[in-house]
Predict the structure.
Amino acid sequence: MRLDKRWIVIAALALAIALYYGLDLGRFLSLEFVKSRQAELEAWRAAKPVAAGATAFLVYVVVTGLSLPGAAVMTLAVGAIFGLGWGTLIVSFASTIGATLAFLASRVLFRDWVQSRFGDRLAAVNAGIQREGGFYLFTLRLVPVFPFFVINLAMGVTPIRPWTFYWVSQLGMLAATVVFVNAGTQLARIESLSDVASPGVLVSFALLGLFPLLAKKALDVVRARRVYAPWPRPRRFDRNLVVIGAGSAGLVTAYIAAAVRAKVTLVEKHRMGGDCLNTGCVPSKALIRSAKLLSHIRRAGEFGIRRAEAEFDFADVMERVQRVVREIAPHDSVERYTGLGVDVVEGTARIVTPWEVEITRPDGTVQRLATRSIVIATGGRPAVPPIPGIDRVGYLTSDTVWGLRVLPRRLVVLGGGPIGSELTQAFARLGAQVTQVEMEPRLLLREDPEVSEAVARRFVAEGIDVRVGHEAKRFEVVDGEKILVAKHDGSEVRIPFDALLVATGRAANLQGFGLEELGVVTGRTIETNGFLQTNFPNIYAAGDVAGPYQFTHTAAHQAWYAAVNALFAPFRKFRADYTVIPWSTFVEPEVARVGLNELEARERNVPHEVTVYGIGDLDRAIADGEAHGFVKVLTVPGKDRILGVTIVGEHAGDLLAEFVLAMKHGIGLDKILGTIHTYPTLAEANKYAAGVWKRAHAPQRLLAWVERFHAWRRG
Ligand SMILES: Cc1cc2nc3c(=O)[nH]c(=O)nc-3n(C[C@H](O)[C@H](O)[C@H](O)COP(=O)(O)OP(=O)(O)OC[C@H]3O[C@@H](n4cnc5c(N)ncnc54)[C@H](O)[C@@H]3O)c2cc1C
């Protein structure tokens, strides 16, 4: 159906353009021709005004609709023949209708193709057009320096609505229309188009075009003034920046501020390092390491070791976890940051005005700091669903689990996301009988189904009771035994347990430090613009509290933008770049991803090719006894440009780095294939994946000729 419509449009356009050039119709649209026939045309208009007006209108629509040259001359001609009033009316409607036809033709012919081919790169443009397309179009229309037909065709491939395109175009083109039609009334005096569009006129239009931009800026300033209105602005500031929260985002923000010699205070109410160091990445990875060692000892037979036994105490493992935290803690310590030039204050921060932060220290003393900018980096916390009975049975979260010193015999882990899955496997390997409960139909729902399957298969093989499609309904205590009642396939399932670990997602820390009172706009996280500014332009947010990602590396990434923007706006501002975001889930098999996976590519209609290399074939993986998993690469059809990569297997997170770099810097699979990878390493999997892609794209015709060439050389 779509194909038919396209062909009709193409055929009509081709025919009309062929006629125009074949019959040299352009000669009728020259200034000389119009001037030489002006008297006849005026006589025709006087005799048959309606027919003359309708003809002028139609011809105008056809010329602009087909994007043919000559619209400016026609505008002058219409002015000469119909005068300023009727001329403006005819040209204004005819040019807008013609422009809209060209816009629609471009939409039918090119939009799907352009969006499917470049949609991933155009995401920001599309979002901008959806938000402010009318505004941009208006600006472009006001400045006749941009050829009108280019605007028509370019807008056709964007998501702007036809009606918006129509009325904004008509309004935007009106000023230029009036100027040209009016000039046409003096046609006799015009020798060339430059007499109308003189540099002076063009500069005036350009200034006119700047007007909406300036108006928008002024509006932003007024809006900003309005949000600040209730609070007097301090005449002087004690600090350039106050950063609230010393987790991954806050630490990096403060570090950057100190590095560029700003006066910065970093406030932390609990523990320096935040979640990642104290209750997140670091302890979980330390625990996973001990658990992995145990799993290797259990697999000793596979490696030719007859007997290997592990004697251990869970409490010692948890003590090691704390040792690791203590060993890394100096990196995030008060001493280190003070040495770097940051004023670190241990206390609870509260924003009292857009420029003032009040800090209450543990000893009760209160300090109020006036600051030019604030970065909120208060992080998040485990979100615990209000399931009936949950408080009665008691539960652990990623905040509290690190205090355990006795291994629970039967552990229920609620949640099949990354945190739930990592802790499930670690506790199971340490000897707990773990039941992992997930209401969705599979673990790690954001990943492709075969990734979830690979992880679930391994979990089951390791003795974990994986219950997907189980929705926790309530908790009961029956004869002293704790029971989770879940719904599965329409019936109730009862799962007895000794301890419950809730890992059902994380909520941003938004309450209790002044956001509500001030009126900082929040949803699930703090709402920020592309520069990480809240609705108060001098207050920024970064990390888990800003979202949308909840990783240490994205918190640090955002921190750079928040710090630089907070210190240098409005002179220089940078829009946070989320084009290439990697992440890993540290289960076995490890899962790592950057960019699109197949599921997302299909959902978003992004054309793609899939290349898979099975790590089961890789020499090093075989030697290591880890011959499993895959590298899956999505590329633009027919090209080696990478859209996304998922790796499942040993050290997947480390292997991914090569693809992250490639995507960030536009390096394709061809270049990865042409790069020497050390033998035998797991990293060779990346090169072999590129090789699989290359073989699938081998130039078959050329190879047939080369084969003949070799045959010829053999004689
Ligand atoms: C179990 C687990 C494992 C994880 N594993 C990984 C991983 O492997 N890789 C990864 O990238 N990410 C991982 N994460 C996520 C990572 O920990 C977070 O994304 C990261 O810590 C977010 O940093 P942040 O600075 O935004 O917040 P946080 O680290 O939470 O820091 C916020 C800080 O603000 C302080 N604060 C809050 N309010 C105030 C106030 N009013 N005044 C003063 N201070 C205040 C808090 O005390 C806290 O220290 C994991 C998380 C968990 C829970």
Q: What stands out?
A: The radius of gyration is 34 Å. Residues 290 and 317 are 7 Å apart (CA to CA). The chain has 25 helices and 21 strands.
